[in-house]
């Protein structure tokens, strides 16, 4: 030890003093967006304020508008955007020029117990603990003010536009309910929420300060408080410690850490710990962690000799059967009175959305994420979590179910499979009411595809030649008919010569004027498709019908297409033949809808008594492209007497869509 002391001699001893005069008021300001050589000491400080509890500071500094580097036109434009053309005491820039900027602070660290400011003078070191370390950056709150001004102007302009069909909303009965007492758990969630913290921060008032420059006499006076005011070292009790106390401060004794063993299923359990739980808890824990599992794998994870009947009874309480595999129930993953870790959506809403995803996988192997999200309308993070539980992404195929169909289990346990099927039927009926869909909307995708037929090149050539000979005569007749039609195009139409059997001015298939020889009659298959489609949707645009027709043709097996090519004119003729009529909706002049989107057709006649309601509604939409519910209800009452509310609800749901308090025919809402 003696030799070590000789090699490292003490050169100088420095007395250290603890200054406490500014211990609760000393802040360190940092300007990270500016180099240390470019200080703000010579810049005019116009205003300063602080929130002491939050340690939040704002400084207003002047901008040298006379500098050659200052763009005056930009400064005037920013001031105009923020304050407008008028003058007000609340204006940010009173000189109509951006001549100042605001700096706002954030805490660089929340724990400043290890930081202090030190001053060395006359062989003495005086240190003062720091209250806070703040980083000041330019604030762009004036841009938010400019945006709010722009929105106010736009709202004022929109408010000035009046429409003849905008009437006051009808009076509605209001049900008064008293809020339930807030639980302790809900109170804790509310206190920890971002909205609550923002509200608490806004409640603390600003304390306005007066700024003194570096060379100001007041600043010189305050700097003297950085030195210890008492010359007696005994008063600095923090720096007077015995060697033993000082050593214990440098190296505190180690505290024995208590090892907390996992006690709940949410922790990672070893197989030995898992098997100490009851059978039901074992199955629930495994399914909650694995999410989806074949029954054979589950039996392999349980202790040997476990009764499979008991396991089947337990797993049906915590899981559902999807493609022969067991998937954990949604209410097990999202218990009641909980919410999403991503978005805060309540557990009840999450369970409905996840049940829809699982139900879709009972119909097909793959689903599209966008389609799922458009129906359940949950945040993307939650939808992705649902899919990751049971599926994996595949290129150009969406999300595919994780496991192959367990045919062995389905064949071995038909009673369980049937019971699970009935459960899914009940879940499906609930989901249809919640999300407003039909199972048939998803069925074409799962239609079985026929086995591919291999045809040689010679066979293809021979078939093409035969097809050309067969169609040559019909093509020639069609050409002759078109030429004849062109000759008669300039002749005026006599309304009295329209034959019987015409629908909306177009000849029907049974009318005597209809030319079957020229092949202009729409096929029966096309008429059947149009009829079924309108009986399901009631109102459609030509663009939407073409889309559904293309989907229908694409879903048909190869080589079995009932119609090869359908022109727009033929499709419109077919619509009119199927007891439908075109509704000439008066779209607004600024409408961006395409021509096919402005051609709206509605089902006119079905042979039911409800047709009269639908016809009257279509007549109303000939005068206006949007209506209020009260207007529709009043018109129905005037023309047809008192109409039950259920019939009005059915009429609107079949033919219309609601947006911003107005009702539009399907497909006519302007984006």
From TrEMBL:
Pfam families: RPC5, RPC5_C. One of its GO terms (biological process) is tRNA transcription by RNA polymerase III. Residues 444-671 form the DNA-directed RNA polymerase III subunit RPC5 C-terminal domain. One of its GO terms (cellular component) is RNA polymerase III complex. Keywords: DNA-directed RNA polymerase, Transcription. This is DNA-directed RNA polymerase III subunit RPC5. Residues 145-182, 446-498 are annotated as: Disordered. The gene is polr3e. Residues 145-156, 460-470, 477-491 have a biased composition (Basic and acidic residues). It comes from Betta splendens (Siamese fighting fish). The keyword Electron transport does not apply.
């Amino acid at each position: 030890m003696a030799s070590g002391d000789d090699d490292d001699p003490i050169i100088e001893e420095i007395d250290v003093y603890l200054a406490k005069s500014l211990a609760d008021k000393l802040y360190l300001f940092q300007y990270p967006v500016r180099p240390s050589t470019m200080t703000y000491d010579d810049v005019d400080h116009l205003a300063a304020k602080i929130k002491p509890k939050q340690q939040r500071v704002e400084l207003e500094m002047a901008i040298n508008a006379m500098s050659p580097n200052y763009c005056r036109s930009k400064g005037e434009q920013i001031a105009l955007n923020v304050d407008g053309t008028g003058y007000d005491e609340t204006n940010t820039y009173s000189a109509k020029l951006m001549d100042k900027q605001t700096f706002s602070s954030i805490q660089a660290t929340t724990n400043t117990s290890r930081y202090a400011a030190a001053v060395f003078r006359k062989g003495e070191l005086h240190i003062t603990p720091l209250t806070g370390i703040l980083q000041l950056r330019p604030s762009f709150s004036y841009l938010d003010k400019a945006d709010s001004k722009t929105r106010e102007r736009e709202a004022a302009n929109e408010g000035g536009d009046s429409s003849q069909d905008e009437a006051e909303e009808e009076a509605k009965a209001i049900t008064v309910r008293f809020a339930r007492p807030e639980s302790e758990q809900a109170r804790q969630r509310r206190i920890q929420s971002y909205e609550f913290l923002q509200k608490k921060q806004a409640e603390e008032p600003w304390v306005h300060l007066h700024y003194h420059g570096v060379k100001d006499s007041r600043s010189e006076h305050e700097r003297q408080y950085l030195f210890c005011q008492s010359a007696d070292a005994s008063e600095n009790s923090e720096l007077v410690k015995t060697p033993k106390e000082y050593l214990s401060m440098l190296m505190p004794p180690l505290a024995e850490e208590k090892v907390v063993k996992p006690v709940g299923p949410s922790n990672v359990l070893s197989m030995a710990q898992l098997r100490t739980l009851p059978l039901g808890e074992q199955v629930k824990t495994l399914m909650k962690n694995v999410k989806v599992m074949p029954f054979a794998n589950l039996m392999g994870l349980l202790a040997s000799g476990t009764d499979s009947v008991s396991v089947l009874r337990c797993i049906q309480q915590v899981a559902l059967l999807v493609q022969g595999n067991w998937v954990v129930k949604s209410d097990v993953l999202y218990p009641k009175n909980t919410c999403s870790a991503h978005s805060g959506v309540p557990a009840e809403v999450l369970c409905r959305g996840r049940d829809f995803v699982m139900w879709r996988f009972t119909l097909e192997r793959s689903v599209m994420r966008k389609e799922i999200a458009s129906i359940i309308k949950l945040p993307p993070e939650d939808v992705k979590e649902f899919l990751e539980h049971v599926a994996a992404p595949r290129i150009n195929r969406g999300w595919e179910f994780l496991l192959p169909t367990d045919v062995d289990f389905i064949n071995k346990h038909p009673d369980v499979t049937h019971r699970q099927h009935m459960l899914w039927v009940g879940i499906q009926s609930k989901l249809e009411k919640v999300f407003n869909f039909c199972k048939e909307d998803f069925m074409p995708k799962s239609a079985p595809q026929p086995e591919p037929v291999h045809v040689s090149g010679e066979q293809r050539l021979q078939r093409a030649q035969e097809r050309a000979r067969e169609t040559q005569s019909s093509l020639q007749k069609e050409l002759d008919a078109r030429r004849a039609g062109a000759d008669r195009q300039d002749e005026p139409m006599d309304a009295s010569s329209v034959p019987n059997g015409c629908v909306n001015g177009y000849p029907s298939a049974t009318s005597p004027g209809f030319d079957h020889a020229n092949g202009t009659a729409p096929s029966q298959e096309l008429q059947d498709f149009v009829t079924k489609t309108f009986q399901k949707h009631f109102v459609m645009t030509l663009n939407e019908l073409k889309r559904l027709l293309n989907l229908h043709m694409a879903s048909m097996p190869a080589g079995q297409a009932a119609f090869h090519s359908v022109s727009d004119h033929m499709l419109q003729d077919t619509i009119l033949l199927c007891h439908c009529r075109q509704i000439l909706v008066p779209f607004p002049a600024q409408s961006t809808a395409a021509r096919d989107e402005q051609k709206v057709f509605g089902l006119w006649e079905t042979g039911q008594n409800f047709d009269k309601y639908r016809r009257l509604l279509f007549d109303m939409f000939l005068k206006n492209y949007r209506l209020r519910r009260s207007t529709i209800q009043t018109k129905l009452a005037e023309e047809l007497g008192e109409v039950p509310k259920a019939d009005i609800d059915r009429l609107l749901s079949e033919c219309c869509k609601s947006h911003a308090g107005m009702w539009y025919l399907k497909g006519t809402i302007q984006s």
